[in-house]
Design brief:
mainly beta, 8-stranded antiparallel β-sheet, 19 strands
């Protein structure tokens, strides 16, 4: 019913010499755990840390939905024709790779960049690529992915405020900042920034903020076909 992954337990990756540090929640790149490949359609939740000037040069994707959430700093995204978009804290970025796309991600700003990048498997492969940025997404506003049964909610809780967790057969919670207590699925569990919880139905899970918190809540379908 509940699996908690602590921030310190994430797999270490990236290229520190190039100013890139990555914390992986799932099997990714050179890190493989057959028991931790995906959770429903969610197959990656990476915390990327880029030094000023660092980034990922043009690289391809296909058949994946990529959702990015900036924690601090500015993320510059460039598509295949060189069009650049700057994504800041509070903005939600989605790239639908479809049958194939190439892009660039980098820290073009003067400050260190930290962002979350989440990959989901679409319900059907192929199709045209698509790109979207939602500026200043509101608290608890549902964002439904167009090609896979998954809904993301961003919750910003004040000290002592509570919020229900769930709404799908599977729920994935990532604590972006602050601290919360998760209850309703056994003994209460304290979560701090960078921790994540996977819930597989049952109980009435609720989080209560301790001093304020920002969390990302995925409501997911079962494993994709």
């Amino acid at each position: 019913m509940l699996r908690v992954t602590r921030a310190a337990e994430r797999y270490r990756g990236g290229d520190p010499a190039a100013g890139i540090e990555t914390r992986h929640a799932f099997s990714f790149a050179g890190f493989y755990d057959p028991d931790n490949v995906r959770f429903g359609p969610l197959t990656a939740c990476n915390e990327e840390r880029l030094a000023p000037g660092a980034g990922f040069p043009a690289h391809p994707h296909r058949d994946v939905e990529i959702v990015s959430w900036v924690l601090s700093g500015e993320l510059t995204h460039e598509d295949e024709d060189g069009t650049a978009t700057v994504v800041r804290p509070g903005d939600l970025q989605r790239l639908t790779a479809g049958a194939g796309v190439r892009h660039v991600e980098r820290n073009a700003g003067p400050e260190p960049l930290r962002f979350l990048q989440m990959w989901l498997i679409p319900a059907e492969p192929g199709g045209e690529p698509a790109y979207e940025v939602v500026r200043g997404i509101g608290d608890d506003v549902p964002y439904a992915l167009p090609r896979t049964p998954a809904v993301l909610r961003v919750r910003r809780l004040r000290d002592g405020e509570r919020a229900a967790v769930g709404g799908g057969r599977l729920a994935y919670l990532h604590l972006a900042s602050g601290a919360v207590e998760l209850s309703g699925v056994g003994p209460p569990v304290a979560l701090t920034a960078g921790d994540a919880a996977r819930l597989t139905g049952g109980g009435e899970p609720v989080v209560r903020a301790a001093g304020g918190a920002e969390l990302l809540l995925w409501e997911l379908s079962d494993r994709p076909s």
